[in-house]
Specification:
The protein is of the alpha+beta class. The chain is built from 7 helices and 7 strands; from the N terminus they run βαααββαββββααα.
């Protein structure tokens, strides 16, 4: 459903995922999404590199015309359990895949590196055949809301990149609200321990240094 989309970033892929791993910025950073879900939007960190964010618009009185039109035009989705007919659910799979479940369609996207300080976020939407005009209308409103969210995330990523490259930046300080970022970075350090070093290894030695760190960690664990 709809054309595949893609955004290119002049930023490390892990930094892009950091922005996409927490929802506490939704009230300020995503006015449309916040109008849809309000304070029901929650983040959860699960096991094995899986995270979930979700929000409900059941009985929601939207203020913005776009969100209001989406809610009012969306027909019943009888193929879904009643508990999921008014939910937007985002499943995050380590390291960079997101599967988003809407009542009217699904969206799958991925963040991946394309070079030094270069990365891409790309995805596509899929929907069941449905000839109802009101469903097609709701899907169009859905895409408009989500493209706004995407544009807003692109701006947040750019601001984050500018901050990290400024002379004032020293290190990251995470709050208790940033559970998704913590889980992602901890998972990275577990699988690729070399990322925990304060300084990058010499050119050409990254793989060897990483394998040495894994071997040392395994020996300590076995002791």
């Amino acid at each position: 459903y709809d054309e595949p989309w893609r955004w290119d970033f002049d930023l490390d892929w892990k930094s892009v995922i950091d922005i996409d791993s927490e929802g506490y910025h939704v009230p300020i950073g995503h006015p449309g999404l916040f109008d849809l879900c309000g304070s029901s939007y929650k983040d959860e960190v699960l096991e094995s590199g899986i995270g979930r964010s979700y929000g409900s618009f059941k009985d929601r009185k939207a203020k913005t015309p776009l969100v209001k039109n989406y809610i009012e035009s969306l027909p019943e989705s009888n193929y879904l359990p009643a508990s999921h007919r008014h939910l937007w659910i985002y499943w995050g799979l380590f390291p960079g895949i997101v599967i988003t479940l809407f009542p009217d369609m699904i969206e799958v996207y991925q963040v991946y590196p394309t070079g030094y300080q270069k990365s891409v976020m790309a995805g596509s939407c899929y929907a069941l055949p449905d000839a109802r005009p009101e469903m097609e209308t709701a899907r169009q409103y859905n895409r408009e809301i989500n493209m706004d969210v995407g544009d807003e995330d692109v701006q947040l990523v750019k601001w984050a990149a500018e901050g990290q490259r400024s002379s004032a930046f020293e290190e990251v300080l995470l709050s208790d609200l940033e559970l998704g970022i913590c889980a992602f970075q901890n998972r990275l350090r577990e699988i690729i321990p070399v990322v925990s070093l304060d300084r990058a290894p010499e050119t050409g030695s990254l793989k060897a240094v990483n394998q040495k760190m894994i071997k040392k960690r395994n020996l300590i664990s076995a002791a």
